[in-house]
Amino acid sequence: MAHHDGSWISRLSPGGSARRNNSLNFYDAQDGDEAESRLDAARTRFKRLETPFHVRWTPLVPTEVDQVLTSQNYARVVETLVLSRSIWGLGDTEVPAGYKLAEVSLGEWISNYAQVSGVKRGEPLSETVQALHDVLSRVTVELIGLVLETEDGVPAAVLLGVVDGDLLGIFSVMTAEVFRRQGLAYALMCEVQRLGAERGAETAWLQVVADNVAAVELYDSLGYREAYAYHYCKDAQP
To answer: Does the keyword Nucleotide-binding apply (predicted)?
Structure first.
């Protein structure tokens, strides 16, 4: 559910764990009037639903709001970088020896995603993975589900692309621990950009936690540059 207060939008999914789905978001840096009282009202709304209150800080947070967050000792956590690059002119994908790369259906991708996450083949999906499937099954834009397997059919790495007009969003880049440092994520990134370009995308974007040094270095090597950064401000009040 969402509550609008001018350009302030409270996104609420009681029971959900994702901060993005349970946070106060801002879309106009000039909309800072009565910041303290509006922030208090938003906090009360979250508490009424027994949902932790987080503020998503981006460059669009009004100065007045930022000042209130500082004065009320909000903790700033989980700095995330939003990176982007043009995806024209990429060549063919080189798949590391001993692996097979395939684009699969959403159902197959979810199953492989779960296994790469550590779930054994045939085990029931966790509530979190099932919720991810339910959300993705309602998406109206085109999905690109990629899987890298060993020659024996063991899922080693996954990636999900979302083509929305001329934009390609890249999500859930994950390699099973035993298969890391073999260039699998690099191969998946090259392939999703190639497929995205074929389907009309001109710009690719993704998010990465700032202290994930290996991932940041990978994306830098692929030409991704920072568009902006954001973090969450956690309510200091119990």
So the answer is: no
